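Here's what a typical entry looks like (FmdB family transcriptional regulator):
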Amino acid sequence: MPIYEYECKACGHRMEKLQKISADPLKSCPACQQDDLERLVSAAGFRLAGGGWYETDFKTGSKKNLAADGQAAGSAKSDTSSTSTNKGAAA
């Protein structure tokens, strides 16, 4: 869900609100109760929720280096396959 930024044209109060994309923009200012609240155009703000965004998030100990271990294992496999290919080409 995106985080929208609002500003009241009557009193200048600024706020952020977490809303669904399909939700209607807010109109009433919580500070002065006027219907002069306007959604601002600003940098996109959003929250990533749920699991599986980053492999190393919230891991401890040896589990933190899974991405680095995978790269090392992948490079070892490619070195082995290129060595066996070279031996086959020489024979």
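The domain at 1-46 is CATH 2.20.28.10 (Rubrerythrin, domain 2).

More examples are in the samples folder.
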